[in-house]
Amino acid sequence: MTDAPSGLDQSMLTDDEREAVYLLGETLIPEGSSGPSADQAAVATRFIDEFFAVRPDLHAGFRALLAEANLDHPRQWCERLERERPEDFSRLTFVIAGAYLLSPKARSWLNYAGQVGEPQDGSPQPEYAPGGLLDPVRARGPIYRPTDWRPAGGAA
Amino acid sequence: MSSDQTDVVIVGAGLAGGVTAARLTAAGLRVVCLEQGDWPDYDKARADFPDFEITADRYWARDPNVRRAPADYPVDDSTSDISALMWNGVGGGTVLYSAKWHRMTPSDFRVRSHDGVADDWPLSYEDLEPYYVEAERQFGVSGLAGDPAYPAGEGPPNPPVPIRASGRRMAKALNELGWHWWPGTNAISTRHYRMLNPCRQHAACMQGCPERAKASTDITHWPAAIERGADLRTGARVTRVLVRGDRATGVEYLDRRGALHKVEARAVIMCANGIGTPRLLLMSATAEHPDGLANSSGLLGKRLMMHPFGSVAGIFDEDLATHSGSWGQQIQSMHFYESDPSRGFVRGAKWGLQPTGGPLGLTRSYPWAQSREPMWFEHFHHTLARRFGHAPMWSLVAEDLPDERNTVTLSSEHVDSDGLPGAKLSYTVDENSKRLMEFHLARAVESFEAAGARETVVGPHVRSSGWHLMGTAVMGTDPARSVTDRFGRTHDIPNLFIFDSSTWVTSGGVNPAATQAALALWFSDALLRHGQLSRTDMRSGVTA
Predict the structure, then answer these.
(1) How do B421-427 and B349-354 pair as beta strands?
(2) Helical segments of B340-462, H only
(3) How far B522 CA lies from chain A's nearest CA (Å)?
(4) Do residues B71 and B89 lie in contact, with contact meaning Cβ atoms separated by under 8 Å?
(5) Which residue among A115, A134, A137 sits closest to B324, beta carbon to beta carbon?
(6) Residues of chain B found within 8 Å of residue A50, distances taken between Cβ atoms
(7) Is A141 among the domain residues?
């Protein structure tokens, strides 16, 4: 791997690095029976850049991992990294999976629209009304020890 | 060096500082608060954006050693089983907390009497009960009165967050087991309430609530305190508390440009959390107080408690919509909370059922590396799809007994950006906590199995879990065995007060925000009631 020539935007990946992202992405997230691969989700060509646009602090560490990756045997290299350096493997997969899950194709596969939330208004919930799920809890009565509780057999 | 005067100077604008400032300014006192950080920037609350999970642990990072914001000071945790987590800014820990809201139980205040270990508090549940009620109003807490894990009394002002499919499923299972559960109590509003909006269940409570639904003191307390005249100075890093003889005279602080200032005050109130407060009082040592201020007992910085944390996730075949929900907790259980010596340990833990959020989090190692289903390579789509939306989680907060060997001291190796010493932790999870957690994790697994989970995933011990920092300036009645009295007044320096969780005698087994808020009100009312700092006495020239 070569570093980006000085004078170029250091936040961008070189062609060689982008190729490494492609290979590692396809290794970690290959095409599944139901979902797109990293390449089909445009990880190496687009979403890796969107990832680093919001997490530039992770760029240098990620590039260092790319520089040491054995791209002739990416599966074996990833498995060894996971086994021997789990924190580095976690850094690698956070970037690859993070970029993948920015992709509308990937989000569509999961039917994930983001943390869009669900409005609620504090309306009464039937589970908590008489006849609901809380009845047996209420029926059993208090379970706390009152302040004047003493252990059996005498004062502590 | 500039200098000015006030009635009260508060160090730290977090939970205790915010509650205290609001109370004291309402009583007419002049309050200056010095906060080393800044106001939280909610423009960085990204729950409504596709990059939420990517950016969540950057600005909102919980570990100051990772976040390394200008306001953070280094915390050397190399000799600690748990890393300390905190937010150094207006709102303090409430900016990052999950807002799970629990009173301690009556027995939590009587651990020595009930269990023969640790110490009793110099106050009781009954003493704090009216302050719990007031705190729940101030924080817009949501929940349901009548929990049999507590004495009867007034409940939270807002109705509980939605139980959701996951809570319903687990509630039915706990009913089948005959175990206690109750609707989750949270400092998360479920309707328009004072300055709070109803929660929209983004599951983003710990990474910047985008709705102003989660109660944090930067929203719930500081605006009102400032309206009443509180002088909140951000970017103000206190370097030491000033003393003359046995009286505090004020504090010195550095502003962002490094200029030194002094604030003279009738009273100094420390609200800098269980690490920041002992750090500053140790840094304030003088020839007359060579071991730090208010440390004649030798207990300043000792008895650190951090609540060992556990988690168990269940993976279900059906979609339980666990990507969303208040986080917070949908339901809670205290079935195994009270001591049962037959279990081989004392005290207990509280369980809170929470979502597991978006898909990226489900690819992370904690707790998912413990799953029998591999995540990567040809397994990726299968495993992620089976977790996403299908995985509620119990979070377990376990009582942490005090031990004088668990300490906060000044670091001899690390300094903050102003050259002030960082903190050093020495902390070991004790055998009681290990047995307690092992028991509770096993019961939590049973609950998921009873609910029909296809797989349970037990989180291993994780270092990055020190949300709750307690006990390092313990309150008590005996000056030889405590740092403050039961009103937060230090025994050694009568106008130096500690109103934060440093004062805790024991930790309880619940999230501490409710008790800390109630304590800040209890302390503040005592300070006002005892009159030494009333407006009249201020003006009549009480020696400071």
Answers:
(1) unpaired
(2) 380-387, 431-450
(3) 19
(4) yes
(5) A115
(6) 51
(7) no
Contact B35, B89 (CB under 8 A): yes
d(CA B20, CA B100): 21
**Residue found by looking up tokens 């000799």 in the block:** B79
Is residue A147 one of the residues assigned to a domain?
Answer: no
Mean pLDDT across the stretch A42-46? 98
DSSP letter for B370, please.
G
What count of Cα atoms within 13 Å lies in the side-chain half-sphere of residue A36?
Answer: 19
* Residue A95: closest C-alpha in chain B: B54
Mean pLDDT in runs of 10 for chain B (544 residues)? Answer: 92 98 98 98 94 94 94 97 97 98 97 96 96 98 98 97 98 98 98 97 94 97 98 98 96 97 98 98 97 98 96 97 96 97 96 98 94 97 98 97 98 96 98 97 98 96 92 98 98 97 98 98 95 45 34
Q: In which domain, by residue range, is A86 found?
A: 15-110
Nearest to B109 among A125, A133, A147 (CB): A147
Contact A62, A43 (CB under 8 A): no
As a whole number of angstroms, the distance between CA B244 and CA B68 comes to: 35
Q: Which of B47, B107, B144 is closest, CB to CB, to A145?
A: B107
CB contact under 8 A, A101 and B53: yes
Q: Shortest CB distance from B54 goes to which of A54, A112, A140?
A: A54
Across B518-541, b (16+ Cβ under 10 Å) vs e yields: bbbbbbbbebbeeeebbeeebeee
Interface of A with B in 44-83 (CB under 8 A): 50-51, 54-55, 57, 75, 78, 82
Asked whether residue A128 is domain-assigned, the answer is no
Q: How many domains does chain A have?
A: 1
For B341-393, how does the pLDDT look when each residue is reduced to its tens digit (9 = 90+)? Answer: 899 999 999 999 999 999 999 999 999 999 999 999 999 999 999 999 999 99
Is residue B336 within 8 A of residue B443, CB to CB? The reply is yes
Please report the sign of the dihedral spanned by the C-alpha atoms of residue B185, residue B191, residue B194, residue B197. Answer: positive
- B385 CB neighbours in chain A (<8 A) are 34-35, 110
Residue of A nearest to B127 (CA): A147
Write the residue in A34, A107, A115 that is nearest to B385 by C-beta.
A34
Map out the domains of chain B with their CATH numbers: 2-40+69-539 (3.50.50.60)
Q: With contacts defined as CB-CB under 8 Å, which chain A residues touch B208?
A: none
Distance from C-alpha of B6 to C-alpha of A45, rounded to nearest angstrom: 60
- Residue A60 domain flag: yes
**Which residues does chain B have within 8 Å of residue A156's beta carbon, measured at their own beta carbons?**
112-116
CB contact under 8 A, B105 and A122: no
What is residue B3's predicted lDDT score, i.e. its pLDDT? 82
- Expressed in angstroms, the distance from the first to the final Cα of chain A is 70
DSSP string, B435-469: HHHHHHHHHHHHHHHHTT-SEEEEPPP-SS-B---
pLDDT of residue B461: 82
Closest residue on chain A to B105 (Cα)? A144
Q: Rounded to an integer, what distance in angstroms lies between the CA atom of residue B255 and that of residue B261?
A: 8
Q: What is the pLDDT of residues A13-27, one digit of tens each?
A: 999 999 999 999 999
